Each structure stands twice: as C-alpha cells, then as structure tokens.
Amino acid sequence: MIKVGVVGAMGKMGQEVVKAVCGDNSLELVCAVDINQIDALVCANSDVHINGDLKKAIEIHKPDVMVDFTQPKYVFENAKICLENGVRPVIGTTGLNDSQIEELKTLAESKGLGCLIAPNFSTGAILMMMFAQQAAKYFDNAEIIELHHNQKKDAPSGTAIKTALMMSESGKMTFEAGNCPETETIQGARGGKSYSDIHIHSVRMPGYIASQEVIFGASGQILTVRHDSMDRQCYMAGVKLAIKYVADNNNFIYGLEKIM
C-alpha cells in the first residue's frame, strides 16, 4: 500500500484528493498539511488531522508520496522539502517557472526519486493538449484562450503554458504567420506571448472551473479544440495514476501525457 500525504488538504482540490485517496484500497492517507484548520480532522472517515508544518508531517508520518495542491507562492519550496526528505512529490499546483522546474528535476535526479508535475490531471484536458500538438503541425496561426474561476491566482494557467510548449515542439518559430504589425491601444489586449509567439488570453470569472480552447486558423478555415471541466472529480483518476506512477518509478515527469 502506498502511503500518501496531501498538502493544501483543506482547499477545494485538496479535499477531492483526500476523498480519492481514502476511497482507493491501494492507497493510505497518512498525513494532511494545510495552513488552515490546523488539528482539525481532515475527513469523517479518516483519523488524520491537519498539520501546519510540512517538514514535521513528513518526519512523523513518513509518506511515500506527497500530493501538492496549494498556491504558486508555496509550491516550489514544498517540492524541495519533499525531495530533500526522501518523499516523491506529485505537483498539481501551477505557477512554477522554467528555471524552477529544471531545478526540481535536477534535485529529483540527484536524490534518485520520482517526481511528477502536471498542469492538468483531467484525461480530457490532456487529450485536448495532445490534439493541439498534432494540429500545430498543419497550421501556421494559433492562439489559446483559457478560462478559470476568479479565485485562481496565477495567469496564464499552467495548462495553457504547457499546451503552448507542446505546440512549439512542432518546430515552428512563430504562430503569427502573415499577421500585420500591431499596436495595442489598451495594454494586454492581445494577451501574453508565449512559446513560438503563441498568444495566451486569460479569463477569470465566477461560474467557471477550468476551460481552455486552442484556436487554429488558415485561409478559409478555423479549427477549435476545447475542453471544459465541470467538476473537480474529473481530475482524480489522473491524480491517482500519478501517485501510483511516482511510487514505482524514479524518473522526473512534466505533464501527465507522458504516462498516459
């Protein structure tokens, strides 16, 4: 049985992870960490209480895998604490930059530990990203619109950034082919430029959970690839897949599509 801890256990995603782990006979919830409701019982069918200190929770409960759904300002240090203390992190919190991801990769490899970072755990969203990567070979113009709830702190989303990176691997230097010179009369109107000049537009609105569409254009045609998450339970199959993978493998993974 794999011993699992959850960081950010009292958040919306953290609570879903707790329920998913408790409902899987091959997983055991051994600790839960959060800065809120310290000492509270994490859920009704578990005797695990909230610990406010990640390092202390690791020392006491010795989890094999720690799942992180916290906030961008905490995730990098959390991951380093896990790896430095022999715990394999599964990271769902977005906001890590390229240099931080590279540093975590180096640390994981030096410790001989598995580590998985996934901007999105929904199988449908991963397929959307993979379809966009395939379409990128055949179109010279593309933009991304991502839409999330208004409590999401980072923009653009990790999913959008990862999608742009995957599209850029088609070898195209730019997805702005033939665009005229532009002048923004309102700064940011054209979104932010990412890999291969792909524009990313971020929407934050109550009512959304997580949605993304990738728009490809060519003369006389538009192709749109879109995914919508309606409920956070859609991420749990991917989370459990990631937990079981890192428990048995010592490699560093960025993106759930690498193990699907």
Q: From the 3D structure, determine the CATH topology of the largest domain.
A: Rossmann fold
As for the number of domains, it is 2
Mean pLDDT: 95
Q: How is the main sheet built?
A: 7 strands, parallel
Which stretches are poorly predicted, pLDDT < 50 over at least 5 residues? none
User: What's the shape?
Assistant: elongated
Q: What strand line-up does the widest sheet have? A: 3-2-1-4-5-6-12
Task: Please report which band the strand proportion falls in: under 5%, 5-15%, 15-25%, 25-35%, 35-45% or over 45%.
Answer: 15-25%
Task: Count the beta strands.
Answer: 12
Following the backbone from N to C, one meets helices and strands in this order, namely EHEEHEHEHEHEHEEEEHE
- Helix coverage percent of residues? 25-40%
Q: How far is the N terminus from the C terminus?
A: 22 Å
CATH architecture of the largest domain: 3-Layer(aba) Sandwich
Q: Tell me the Rg in angstroms.
A: 19 Å
Tally of alpha and pi helices: 7
Structural class: alpha/beta
- The CATH class of the largest domain is Alpha Beta
Quick one: CATH superfamily of the largest domain?
Answer: NAD(P)-binding Rossmann-like Domain
